[in-house]
Design goal:
Blueprint (H helix, E strand, L loop, with lengths): L3 E6 L6 H14 L7 E6 L2 H10 L6 E4 L16 H6 L4 E4 L2 H6 L4 H13 L3 E6 L3 H5 L3 H16 L2 H4 L2 E4 L13 H18 L8 E5 L4 H8 L6 E4 L6 H10 L3
Parallel strand pairs: 1-2, 1-8, 2-3, 3-4, 4-5, 5-6, 6-7, 7-8
Helix pairs in contact: 1-2, 1-11, 5-7, 7-9, 10-11
The protein binds 1,3-dihydroxyacetonephosphate.
Length: about 250
């Protein structure tokens, strides 16, 4: 049985003071979250170190929102996978649609970042998802599979079998309109079956989490689907009570 995983992606929000307040509130509330639910937060880079120090006694796991595709060296403004691992980061989000659309990250760049994370013993959270236009044109399956196969083509299937894949339909991100549980399940089932068919007999431990307007009010229904192993939460993760309620729903 895969432990469910809930990840809060704080994106580029808040200040040092609000980041500390949020982690303290989460820390207090974690007691009410079942032990078998893994919970992680991805603060802005500038706040991570302080957030780690404030949460060192809890089971809250740390994630980074991004990682460099380069290993080391003269790469101004970048943060490497080894630097992340060095300060205790466990997960790193790669291929988020905001990075694909705002910073032009290609499937190849995302695969490079995934590889860097994997070789530094971080667990990559690979985001895949289609735009509204692609869905309407019937290309949802093609888009998400192309995004996933870019990783397999770069480093093979094994790293994906212990990673996390987040299905985040672009049209559901930040819009308040989540995919329906059935729409999400359909894509998750597709991803799971492709991973199984590529797995060459190895165990498929990949956790498939859903992201896109996840809230306390819709999370229980999403977690009721067979292939939804958790959530990648944006806006609602900035409110400790709301986020903790989502975490608790994962335990039911
Ligand atoms: P929202 O939950 O704000 O829609 O964001 C989802 C997301 O992009 C998480 O990575």
């Amino acid at each position: 049985m895969r432990n469910r995983l809930i990840v809060g992606n704080w994106k580029m929000h808040g200040s040092m003071a609000t980041a500390v307040d949020l982690i303290m509130e989460l820390e207090q509330g974690m007691e009410s979250v079942p032990e078998n639910i893994d919970v992680a937060v991805a603060p802005p880079f500038l706040h991570i170190d302080e957030v780690i120090r404030r949460s060192s006694n809890t089971r809250l796991l740390m994630a980074a929102q991004n990682v460099s595709a380069f290993e080391v060296g003269a790469v101004t403004g970048e943060v490497s996978s080894t630097m992340l691992a060095d300060i205790g980061i466990r997960f790193v989000i790669v291929g988020h649609s905001e990075r694909r659309s705002l910073f032009g990250e290609s499937n190849e760049t995302v695969a490079e970042k995934f590889a860097r994370a994997y070789f530094s013993d971080l667990t990559p959270i690979l985001c895949v998802g289609e735009t509204q236009e692609q869905r309407e044109a019937g290309f949802t399956e093609d888009v998400v599979l192309e995004q996933m196969y870019a990783i397999i083509d770069r480093i093979g299937i094994k790293p994906l079998l212990n990673a996390v894949v987040a299905y985040e339909p672009v049209w559901a991100i930040g819009t308040g309109a989540s995919a329906s549980p059935e729409q999400a399940q359909e894509v998750h089932a597709l991803l799971r079956s492709k991973l199984a068919s590529e797995s060459e007999g190895q165990t498929v431990a990949t956790r498939l989490i859903y992201g896109g307007s996840v809230k306390a009010s819709n999370s229980a229904a999403l977690f009721g689907q067979a292939d939804i192993d958790g959530a990648l939460v944006g806006g609602a993760s900035l409110d400790a009570k709301e986020f903790l309620t989502i975490c608790k729903h994962a335990g039911k």
